[in-house]
Amino acid sequence: MEKNSFSADSGRSPRCRNILQAALSCFAEEGFHRTTNKKIAARAGVAEGLLYHYFPDKEALLFSIIKEKFSQESSPIQKVYAEWEKKLENHLFCGKDLEVFLKRVGEATMASLVLHRDVFRIVVSEYRLLETDREPLYPRLVYELSLNRFNRIVSVLAGWSEVRDVAQYFLGVLFSNFFFQEILSGKKICPLDDKVFLTNLIDHFMKGLGPVLEPNRLEGQHGVE
Fold this sequence. Notes:
Layout: H1 14-30, H2 37-44, H3 48-54, H4 58-71, H5 76-89, H6 97-115, H7 117-125, H8 127-131, H9 137-158, H10 167-183, H11 194-209
């Protein structure tokens, strides 16, 4: 199975997953607007008319790709969030775990960016198309599946009485660095060592948070429900 292939856990049929994979490859190689349904069908090895049985148009294909890639619980970042949310639910944490969480979520985010590189390239190049939908898909998924979860976990581990919006100062830097390296790859830019970059980011982020309180995990009174 290709590293960026669609999981059977999505509940879709093998043929449908094959069409999605073919569309993802074509969009990444040629761009959304230059890709035709005929090319997607040929890549998937199916009749062009069969595409419409599963998806009414190219936009529906693109939205399905984005939604499934960001919703897969098997992705590195989703696994980390689920793991730490379970710790919060069972009060199995302390203030010192904040730095541990940042390291885990940082590593998982960088792994997810590499794993789904083609998807992120499409998102960046076609963000205007994604925004024209009645309910903006990409921003909603990012907030639901990443930013809001990050903010809640960090706020609990930091012992704050309410959830603070700090995700952009950590996750935003990771995303920016990834796209900066992607865009300038081969353009006389020295690539950063991921471990060194993450270590420095965590250090700066922790200092920017200010005093971190020790949550009362024994009684579950960490202030964030």
